[in-house]
Amino acid sequence: MEHPIDEIVFPVSGILSVVARGPGGHAVEAGLVGCDGMSGHMLLLGGTESVHDAMMQIGGHGWRLPAEALRMALKSDEELRDRLLRYVQTVLVQLSHSALAYGKAVIDVRLARWLLMCQDRLGRDQLDLTHEFLALMLGVRRSGVTVALHRLEGDGLVRSRRGSVVIRDRAGLETLAADFYGVPEAHYQRLLGVPLRC
Predict the structure, then answer these.
(1) How many helical (H) and strand (E) elements, i.e. helices and strands, does the chain have?
(2) N or C: which end of the chain has fewer CB within 10 A?
(3) Running DSSP on this structure, what letter comes out for residue 161?
(4) How is residue 16 annotated by DSSP?
């Protein structure tokens, strides 16, 4: 269901999830945004409505801007428009690689990729997340997340506690995620000139 884009959020900390919802209440995270970007990217392509929900998955702070103010700025500032359109390209790459991971990777690999993406945007090892929320983000049942976290914990990659996951071995997570992690991040750095790390 479409809803109007009334404001844009530029997170400074925390993580905002872009969630796709379908018939029967099905939902999965399509993308995530932290200090690397903004909500409402369809506005940059001339849209006024979004088919995605945006929700804060990890609390933080940010800047809000009325959508109309950004529309006006885009009309008058070519450099801003160019930079934000390059950001939209990075969002599209992230979305396509999320679809690839959902379609081809086993849950352990998807979870490793997703934890790395969160750590990139938070700049810390501890991610305050429940198993229920992880299940929604990965499009799986809660029990699947619990089993996957136990396997990652058994391999020494993470430590899982009630309501949080602590990354213990980033290099190990990168090895597990393999080619499902890294392409969007490299694309972001190439297009925007800064690493995707907060």
Answers:
(1) 7, 10
(2) N
(3) E
(4) E
Q: Per the confidence metrics, is the pTM higher than 0.85?
A: yes
167: helix, strand or coil: strand
pLDDT tens-digit series, residues 124-162: 999 998 888 888 878 889 899 999 999 999 999 999 988
Residue 79 CB: number of other CB atoms within 10 A? 7
Could you count the other beta carbons within 10 Å of the beta carbon of residue 3? 11
The order of strands in the sheet holding 27-33 is 27-33, 15-21, 53-58
Q: How far are the Cα atoms of 99, 133, 178 from residue 89, in angstroms, in the given order?
A: 16, 27, 22
Q: Please give the C-alpha separations between residue 168 and each of 54, 99, 128, 144, 180, in angstroms, as whole numbers.
A: 29, 27, 15, 21, 20
The SS3 assignment for 99 reads helix
Residues facing residue 58 across a β-bridge: 15
Compute CA distances 151 → 36, 52, 77, 101, whole Å: 30, 32, 50, 19
- Both structure tokens of 31: 């993308």
In angstroms, the CA 32 to CA 117 distance is 8
